Amino acid sequence: MTASTALRALREALVLEHLESENEREFDTALGVFDHPRCEIVATGEVFDGTDEVAGYYARLGLVCADRRSTLIELHHADDAVIVEVELAGTHLPSLRAFRARMTAFFVFDGARLVGKRVYGGAQGTEPALT
C-alpha cells in the first residue's frame, strides 16, 4: 500500500466512523474523529467551532429530529477532503412530518487530521441540516 493509498484509507475510515457514530447517537465518538471539531452548515451560515459548540448543535438537533439517520450514497476523495453524498431521513418532531433529503458534506483534512465538516443542503422545509 502506497502512502497516498494509506492516507486515503485512513481518511475514509474516519469519515465512515463519524457517519456511523452520528447514526448511532454516539456523539462523543463522532466528535472524537476530529482533530478539532468544526462543522459549517452552508445553507444557514452557521459555524460550530470546538467540542462544546458542535456537541451543543447535536443536542439541539436531537430536539427537532431524534430519529435522524443518514445513508451513504457516494464517497469521493479529493486532495484535501473526502466528499460524501447522503440521504438524510427522519421525523421532524414539532410537526411529526417525515422527511427525506439528499445532502453533500465535505470532510476537510490537513494531512491525516480531520479539521472540519462543511454540509451543503437541507435548508428546504423543516428538515435538519446535518449528515
From TrEMBL:
InterPro entries to which the protein is assigned, alphabetical: NTF2-like_dom_sf, SnoaL-like
Molecular function as annotated in GO: isomerase activity
Domain SnoaL-like: 17-115
Lineage: Bacteria, Bacillati, Actinomycetota, Actinomycetes, Pseudonocardiales
Organism in which the protein naturally occurs: Saccharothrix violaceirubra
Pfam families: SnoaL_2
UniProt-recorded name of the protein: Ketosteroid isomerase-like protein
Domain of life: Bacteria
Keywords: Isomerase
Gene3D superfamilies xref list: 3.10.450.50
